[in-house]
Automatic annotation (TrEMBL):
SUPFAM superfamilies tied to this protein: SpoIIaa-like (SSF52091)
Domain of life: Bacteria
Protein name, UniProt field: Anti-sigma factor antagonist
CDD domains named in the record: STAS_anti-anti-sigma_factors (cd07043)
Family membership: Belongs to the anti-sigma-factor antagonist family.
Species of origin: Saccharothrix lopnurensis
Domain STAS positions: 17-117
Amino acid sequence: MGDITTTTTVSTGDRWGVPVVGLVGEVDMVCEVPARAALVEQLDRRPAGLVLDLTAVDFFGSTGIRLLVEACGRAERHGTAIAVATSRRAVLRTLEMTLVDELVDVHPTVPDALEALRAAGVPFPRQPAACR
């Protein structure tokens, strides 16, 4: 049997001053360290809100759940609101089965997640005319 290699990309950026951490591919043990580092780095800046972009995730298992729950705990301690962006069945089903969907707001797209943060009163450092 050959080695199975998964490719996961971790990116950070911002939309209107709100940090966005994006994961692409499979969220598993291979990407755990860089994904956690990106989330911790952004949350330790203590932003008012953060979006976790999972719109291009193909697999989201126990590692993904652990990362998200840890991020939610850190965010709560820092007073940061988190919104997750995804419409991927692989992610949604795992969030539903573990009831983590009750811990965090989930929206189908990054613009929807940003709009939800804004509607919840999260201040945007750079105000967009609209989040779309």
